[in-house]
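Notes to self after the call with IL:
- keep both proteins in one doc
- input above output, always
- annotate only the second one for now

Protein 1:
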Amino acid sequence: MNAFTNQPLAASAIPAVTNPLLEVADLRKTFSVGRGLFGRPRAILKAVSGVSLKVYPGEIVGLVGESGSGKTTLGRCVLRLVEPSAGTVRFDGVDLMALTGHQLRAFRKHMQIIFQDPFDSINERMSIGELVGEALAIHRLAKGKARRDRIVELLEQVGLRAEFADRYPHTLSGGQRQRVGIARALAGGPQFLVADEPVSALDLSVQAQILNLLLDIRDRLNVGMLFISHDLSVVRFIADRVLVMYLGKIVESAPAEVLYRSAAHPYTQALLSAAPIVGEGRSRERIRLQGELPSPVDPPSGCVFRTRCPKATSECAAVEPPMRAIGPDHHAACLYPASA
């Protein structure tokens, strides 16, 4: 049972602004799979297929879907940690796809990522202070006593005492390690964060602490955030708006309270039916999807969800459904949406 299902929906914190902080249009990412004669790829894997999205300052956008749906690849393409194959990414009016080399490295302080395991690829022999201070050194933001003071300030921002600066990764609990990862991400003073499954490896009580920390950071620093998770209950706790991803495509987008009350796409309905409800005085009929997630190397024709959809018709095999308006700021890519 999930600890977040009895929590109220996240209250919208989107300020009254006109321009998005992040704007992604028709983003695509393909990978070559295997090599055949003369080194030619045997197949093309379509990890992200024409995704468009916006994130506003101070807004947390949840991105949900099954494992293999392309969520993590999308998040890393947005930051250009993975190079997109096509599409545009604009951040605060800057075309990120036009940045190269030194320009891109300098720009990274504005956009950072929080990993599921922040210490997965770091040097365990470095102290916490050295790890948090790396970004300050790389971007030449502080040195000497000013750097030490900033490291302590960052640790305190994430709920860790100053003495943690002299400790080493192996002495920390999972929740403490994630707090250090968040401090590292905040070191450059970013305006935007990608949080990639940041609580999935933590115990439930610790998950709640980290989620509340992220909400506090959003409120204090007005950062925009793309929060990636497979857990709809976690996303319900933290997100202002939710995007549902299936086989490389966004199939539904809506404000969180709208999505959880009246999901339009059959895939979203199936995901919600599997999430437990606590304290709401009602239950859902479980919608069980048939089969497995199709291969992104050979996705279905028409609607990518049709091979598992209980409502699919012959038209769904022939027509790729566009994103259509279901209501205010509510869109779904379905020929027969529930709320139409």
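Protein 2 (the one to annotate):
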Amino acid sequence: MKRDDTAAGKKGRLAGFAGFRRKRPQKEIRSRADQAIMGIAYVVSGVFLAMAVYFGWFIQFDSEDVIGSPYNARLDRFSDRIVRGRILSNDGQTLAETLVDADGTETRRCPFDSLFVHAVGYCGLNGRTGLEAQANYYLLTSHVNLLEKVFCELKGEKCPGDQVVTTLDADLQRAAAGALGNRAGAVIAMEPDTGKILAMVSQPGFDANQVDEIWEALISPDNTAAQLVNRATQGRYPPGSTFKILTALEFMRENPDTWQDFTFHCTGVFQSGDYTIRCFHSEAHGDQNLIQAFAGSCNGAFAQIGLSLDAGRFKGLAESVLFNSPLPYPMPYNESSFVMDEDADEWERLQTAIGQGRTQMTPLHNLLLIAAIANGGTLMRPYMMDHVENVGGQTIRKFLPSAYGSLMSASDAAFLSELLKQTVEIGTGSALKTDRYTAAGKTGSAEFETGKETHSWFVGYAPAENPAIAISVIAEEAGSGGQVAAPVARAVFDAYFAKQGAGSGKSE
């Protein structure tokens, strides 16, 4: 067929080609549009799925923390229809309650006045602390039955809030406070295999019932007693000889085959160049092996050990047991600090090895360390809320023990346990020797300011072979740990085993 080369023919052919070109991009455009729509659909679906997962997680795990936050002002509105619930000891004694007068006036009352003021805390015009803050959500929630709720609504009355039953033992709390006496300091005790806090005392304290009236005096710049500070969790002190627990552990790790061959002759004064380290009251311990040096708390022996240690590894050990780290504790506390590194000079090495220098530790942290040793190296998370129940006693929520993790191996814990037992048997912890139960522990006398008496420390547990209770004691400016802090621990242990039954803690 002859091609039409006329103007009309050329125009027709060009129109055909143009039409062909127009059809092809339209298909591509539709394809690309479909891909874009599908992409948007995938993104929207992904965002929706992520939100669903987040909301599920929030409802299951985070909602109560957010709702119960002290910054959540809406939670306070719950008090418009709910009477704040009671806080109880582990045997049902009332630690805090709300009294309602005939005219509807509510007053928060703490029957033990100042005894539980740092553990249970206070609730008033100046905020909430302690368990009053941590358990705020539960105390302002009511699980009364539907009939009673309707009855309260019809009468225009508030429903009673739920009750929080704590792990705190009123008898042990009294024993701890009584043994500490009028000294400033703290006592904190827990079950090493569960993490239940049994007692928490901080002195000086104040009457939780009068906090609003005496608030200005408590926060006055002229007040140096610092009653608002919970010394058990927020007080930071040089650990003194209780830190020799870690020095001994690092020495054993660096000398796994030869630590038993260690010997030192103590004259009461250790000299290294221009530096002098003295044992407590310059007592001469004579010839010492590692166990004897630990039990007798020989500063000279541990100063020599400190000079032999790898400073970088020593810092690594300290940080592995939660120095310079957050603690697994849900309420306000201060972190302990260990600052010596591989560039430390000789004086800092000497001081750090015996628990002095710039090392700072809280009684809470010292308790967690000794509890982990008592529990074979595993640290349980400390907690004070055992369960929540409604006003009729029906359990609404139960809090269960949980492990934080391993601070050391079981063999490390066994090594330290033997040293701690010997401290009570032949050393500075002899105040804990009794026929009723066995005990293990470490004393400490921490210098903090020239010309002032040392802080008195004791950390330990009982029974030694099957630990049921661990304790940390600090008595400020009280002198010898063996003479002051150890007897305080003994009083708490005595009260604990008296409740368990005579001789129940004695290992056969």
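Annotation: Residues 276 and 412 are 31 Å apart (CA to CA). The domain at 73-168 is CATH 3.90.1310.10 (Penicillin-binding protein 2a (Domain 2)).
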